[in-house]
Protein 1
Amino acid sequence: MGADPAGLTAWKADRLAALQAEDGWLNLTDRLEIPPGPQRVGAGADNDLVLSRGPAHLGVVDAGAGTFTPEGGTALAFQPAPGGFPQLRLPPFLLELHTVDGIPALRVRDLTLPREVVLRAFPYRPDWVIQARWEVLASPQAQAVAQKGGAETSVSLTHRAHFEREGRTITLLPTHWKDGKPMFVIRDATSGRETYAASRFLIGEVEGEVVTLDFNRAFTPPCGFTDFAICPLPPRENVLPFRVEAGEWAPEGVPHA
């Protein structure tokens, strides 16, 4: 399988642990947009928000108030979650207020479901650890971004990454940021074959005027594991015309993928 440099094994372990966590991507059962005002929630057809599983009447959600009132109980407040959206544990469910473009939705995780997945990857390729030129734009530029599972949105670009590969000059756009680091949404000639068809995500490491792009850490986005995620798709510049035989393959053990 080739060399495995320091840090990559730990990175893979952390990635798997995050996927298999209670609030990971493997146990989502529903995502339902929430209209204004109190909305009845449950598996019964007479609810405003009909769940795919659970009791006929689970309770009432009020996105504006940030509360959920269990059937026959008192209102409970959704609580902030580290790095995520407000959550509320209501066994066997973990409820989440998931807001995208100002529209709230109730995202439901069933904590009793198995959270198993097999993550495969190409053998490590040191030649796919690329030191790219990190360009700061003179002024922010608006960029339209299509989304799988959601409407088109717009982001503000502040940087670009440039490198040479297979005789071509490549410019990648970091359309998103994660924990203060630029995130690139990419697609290449392995997409829909070995790797997930819609895209892969790649987090850059910036040092001065250089951004390190370690394609061995390119990974499948949340929408590769569940239909209840909303994921950005790559802009035209980030669709690479060659095979990137590095990083994560499409997942095994996930019916959606």
Note: The first helix runs from residue 8 to 20.
Protein 2
Amino acid sequence: MRVLIAPDCFTGTLTAEQAAVAIADGWRDGAPHDVLTLRPLSDGGPGFLDVLSDALAGEVIVVPVSDPLGRTVPATVLLVAEGGRRTAYVESAQACGLHLLLPEERDPAHTTTTGVGEMVAAAVDAGATRVVVGLGGSATNDAGAGLLSALGAGPPERLGRGGLALADVTVHDVAGLPAVLDRLRGVELVVATDVDNPLLGLDGATATYAAQKGAGPETAQTLEGSIGHLVDVVARVHAPATDLLTGRPRRVEREPGAGAAGGLGWALMLLGGHRVSGVATVLEAVGFADLLASHDIVVTGEGRLDWNSLRGKVVSGVAEAALGAAVPTVVIAGQVLVGRRETMAAGLSGTYAVAATAEELDASLLDPVGALRARTRRVAATWSPGGGA
């Protein structure tokens, strides 16, 4: 049997590549005669550049950028010649990712996306006329104000100090926005994300994601107000375009994906960016449809299979593509938190948890590679005709 192994990262424990290797080793243990192909994936979050660098022939440049707290960290930009123009791929998590901070440093009231703006600027300076920015896994909730500052929209001491500091910004602090728009004229900005949240409101960036980044209820409420104030100020400097369908001003903050990465999606859309599915972007880049055509089964996975997994994440993207190719999809996840009815409706043929109890979860975290390998061995013995041989 020909097996395509295509997992996402297991957040906090394994990269997508490490997960793919562990799954492959476990499958060989359970079905040694099967032929395996490893293709780690990403939905725009951590690992986005690693996956694309392996799949696309291009030049990788190293750029020193600011991390969420303003410290210098190395980041990379992938430059690829595509269709007669130069495309740059940027992974926002390399500059503003939650993994860059210690647990005690996580505070979205003060973290910034400045480093992402520095990467975008480096991409444009390198001659890119198309910049694809992968969003996901951020430690920030500043509506991309840091990014805007790094590109020249306003002073970093006003825009680059995190979401809480946005409560008192004025039109003078974003006076450079027209110049940024002019600088990016002729550059296509693509916002590759796995979420469709708007910027504000009950489904917005703060309400949905600020808590997992370290914000308490009071801080989250203050952040929501600060970001709302920034939106109002920006509207006075840069009048929104007219929606061709409704004839009304386009409310970028309400666009699906504007709330991605703590509102970084909003800032990129404000600069003319358009949103695409992060996982669809990756699947196309790696030639996933062709891979499916030559395999009998696809095995994917992630740290926690939940409702979000079925909405624009790697698992749902793989399942949709595989269903169209009549190839069964099996998921091996650290935890499975959705029922069989829901996973079958999403096109998944089987779901398997590494850990089903709190005790098993604690044990798996001590040896994530070994735990994933052991669970995969049992799955392979079930699915492969030669399993257990």
Note: The domain at 2-41+288-383 is CATH 3.40.50.10350 (Rossmann fold).
Protein 3
Amino acid sequence: MPTRVDSGGKRAYVMWRGLTASRESVSTKGVRMARTDAIVLGAGIVGTSVALHLVKRGLSVALVDRRGPGEEKSYGNTGVIVGASVFPTAFPRSFSKLLQVALKRAPEANYHLFDLPKVAPWLIAYFAASAPERLKDSAVKLRPLMSRSVAEHEALMAESSALKYLRKTGWMTLYRSDAAFEAMKPQLEFGATIGVAAQELDTAGALALEPSLSPVFRHALMWPDVASLSNPLMVTRAYAERFSALGGVLVQGDARSLHRVDGRWRVDADEGPVDSENVVVALGPWAPDVLEPLGIKVPLGIKRGYHRHYDAKGNAALSRPIIDTENGYALTPMEQGIRLTTGAEFAARDAEPTPVQFERLMPAAKELFPLGEPNEAEPWLGKRPCMPDSLPVLGRAPGQSGLWLAFGHGHWGLTMGAVTGRLIAEMMTGATPFTDPAPYRAERFS
């Protein structure tokens, strides 16, 4: 039976693509409008997880995107669910590294010169937030989300028939120099105080776990509490299928059409308008397109990143993601092949792709692992939505009733997708949140 809605004191049961619609809700053009308890804008891993958690709590939900679930940033990540990580990805602070980046010689970073004036205010804020004490503060505030990330994903994957994509084999970070490993020691010591475990390995110990690697590194860290996915896109799609099976509805439409009509929120979807008292903005890097016309501004920055899939030579294989820390790239075994993901590119969100980082890092990557030829024509470009303090924006939108925010997860969108879905659903339904959401409020930037 379709979800029941109240329509002017009458009970109506009219279906529009699975959503309830009031018999009296007809536009001037004769288009029937669907009414639902919540609209979620953005069908990436975050938005799809939010929608799934809401429908699990008995709400009628429309999940709106212009594309299919998981086809933007949620497709192209490293596939890592980082239950164990200490500091967020920080802005480099050593002069030598900054000079290398400035001269466009750093494999882990690139920038578009003409976009620097536009992104400079965010970069300055990001640099300030990368001070050691502020990194510790962000790390502590992230722990309630990060520590539950694997368990929350595993629960959703179990009910979505997606456990076949889950690997609980940890991940490994490699250090080619003694200096790089020594520089990591204070972070490890602090990590131990907040419950993050890592196992130190020498070269032989690392090769025992990953025999296809070449011994071009001196140290390694094994992070056992990290999980990874062999196909992140298929996991997002599995969550979306579970959402639909529970009565949720996928709607194709443009989130930028969001506006108020008679005190309710409305999105103009391809098959007609959808109304609701509650809307969740889970649009990642596109969140400002919807929020700024409503007078809501947050310091969201974009770190663009690329990936490409390669065949492995011979019988070479990996059992877990590998991070070459000093060269700023990751190698992850995927169903499509070995996925090589780059570091950050600072440029306008919609600027043309410039995947020059591959040229800088490929010698190191091929030295470490026997990569063969790419098995796809072009690299893929994604846009990471990053806040300067590396914390997501979660909770009610300031000054707008019924508007909720769930974006800005930076490098950890996949990691925090499922746990974000739970937290937002708890807040929206009046349940007691599993953790205090105050550190993630948008008002922290006021």
Note: DSSP finds eleven helices and 28 strands in the chain.
Protein 4
Amino acid sequence: MGKAHSQSVTDGKVPGMELAAIADLLPEKAELFPQAKFFNSGAELIASGEVDAVIIATPHYDHTTLGIAALEAGLHLIVEKPISVHKADCEKLIAAHTNKDQVFAAMFNQRTDPRYIKLKKMIDSGEFGKINRVQWTITDWFRSEQYYSSGGWRATWKGEGGGVLLNQCPHQLDLWQWLFGVPSSVRAHIEIGRFHDIEVEDDVTAYLRYDDGMSGVFITTTGEAPGTNRLEIAAEKGRIIVEGTNISWTRNEVETSEHSSTTDQGFARPETWDIEIPFQDKGEQHLGIMKNFANTILKGEKLIAPAEEGIHSVELANAMIYSGTNDCTVTMPLDAAAYETMLMDKIKNSTHVKKVKNTGASTDDFSNSF
């Protein structure tokens, strides 16, 4: 992603940004962008005084240490998802953002998708009425064995800090909390290496409960093909489905609870009509976040994805892993210290050895700066 972000800037796709420097542990990466200064580590780049802003696109644990260094150096900052591996590290990173004149963003690119923007507006306006149940089946994150063997840090507790919940699903977990808020409790079943030779979770089913009675089910895996991406919302004013390029709303003429309490028919459902809201594209995604980042710095535009909000998706992922590991219901907010202790124990007791295939790609530190 560091290479992709740098290419977007050098191609002139982000007005107001210029690529000033890149950093990587592999010296040959300097050849990718010869016009930019090259540093052997993100820490050296951050301390160089050569840049105004940084994008951190490294393995997950470095998001915290490099992020804190960038903020303490007075730089504007975008952190790739997840902003940190676990909640305690998120809190440390967020606490370092003491100068609110520094723009601090997270790469939650799916917040630029018109479907989810429209959905959030309709939820926030109360157009659907009270939401009773949500189910998101997101199983089109298929990954092969080759993917996991392409880097020694992938799919390990020490290198990545988790599996599908920490790598692929931060996007959906961020959208979940953005749309529906943080639940009061989480109960999850996770399977470790069900489909792959890995030591972290690649199959998850979670049940989420809210104080207002709303319930949710979140299902994900990297081992299912072709997979699906279907978000279903059961609300008082009908059923909403987000799938493919449409939002489909089967709208009740009368709210469900009102119909139930007033009808004299035992089996009669509310009358409905169908509403289709089509969308032709998925927004600007990563490019949209970068443009917004630049415009926030230069023009005072409102951030699409403030990094402080990134703690919520990490907390949800952590809660699911903690629940599945310990076969328990997690009451939110998650005990950050308890999760960190569990994670450190997993790292300490890891016996998993991966065969890493050399694909020519960097698997270590790549942070690019502007």
Note: Residues 111-282 form a domain with the Dihydrodipicolinate Reductase; domain 2 fold (CATH 3.30.360.10).
